[in-house]
Design a protein that fits this description.
The complex is a heterodimer of chains A (about 110) and B (about 110). With about 110 residues, chain A is mainly β. Helix content of chain A is about 0%, strand content about 55%. In chain A, a hairpin with a 4-residue loop joins strand 8 (about 65-70) and strand 9. In chain B, strands 2, 4, 5, 6, 9, 10 and 11 form a 7-stranded mixed β-sheet that branches. The chains are: A mainly beta (about 110), B mainly beta (about 110).
């Protein structure tokens, strides 16, 4: 069965410092993986997706994620945090054999000036 | 503008009073789904629909109904709401299934069942 674990429920960084949001997944097959961002009172927006092409995936707003099969990880990074990055981030894996998305429990990113 | 529109955005109601949350998309997407979001649990899928007249249960379908009579609309129906259905609900759509397709989300509907 597929699953996804976001290792940190909260992450706090200072503006201008790097961001690392961690995600581990479990999947029987080659997975499709996504990161979504949710700003307050808004729906989720796709940041980036991995679908078995390049292992380093670039997304919007300067975010990127690296698929590491040996570590079953798909961590999200950004070199320099901006105040507008403060939001909740969800790592998502596509189910192997059903038309379902499986969401992690989310990581809330706080950015301090 | 491409969008998924949910109504209402906020609703406070009482146990047992039937309610419907509407969802409409203007992107001609085939796949639509409903999620509920609860603190510490992420998003859990309630129902999804691959196309008109085709619906399937997600992970937490109990207490909910859906219908897909038209491609653009996918209403969520709570026939007899209970307090444990108090939650934040999201409708989403994508072109064809979810694989390799980004989901477009509505802005959410916050339901409070007293």
């Amino acid at each position: 069965a597929q699953s996804v674990t976001q290792l940190d429920s909260h992450v706090s960084v200072s503006e201008g410092t790097p961001v690392l949001l961690r995600c581990n997944y479990s999947s029987s097959y080659s997975p499709s993986l996504f990161w979504y961002v949710q700003h307050p009172n808004k729906g989720l927006q796709l940041l980036l997706k991995y679908t078995s092409a390049a292992t380093l995936v670039k997304g919007i707003n300067g975010f990127e994620a690296e698929f590491k099969k040996s570590e079953t990880s798909f961590h999200l990074t950004k070199p320099s945090a901006h105040m507008s990055d403060a939001a909740e981030y969800f790592c998502v894996v596509a189910s192997d054999n059903t038309d379902k998305l499986i969401f992690g429990t989310g990581t809330r990113l706080q950015v301090f000036p | 503008e491409a969008q998924v529109t949910q109504n209402p955005r906020y609703l406070i109601t009482v146990t047992g009073k039937k309610l419907t949350v509407t969802c409409s998309q203007n992107m001609n997407h085939e796949y639509m789904s409903w999620y509920r979001q609860d603190p510490g649990l992420g998003l859990r899928q309630i129902y999804y629909s691959m196309n008109v007249e085709v619906t399937d249960k997600g992970d937490v379908p109990e207490g909910y109904k859906v219908s897909r009579k038209e491609k653009r609309n996918f209403p969520l129906i709570l026939e007899s709401p209970s307090p444990n259905q108090t939650s934040l609900y999201f409708c989403a759509s994508s072109l064809m299934g979810f694989d390799n397709q980004p989901q477009h989300f509505g802005d959410g509907t916050r339901l409070s069942i007293l």
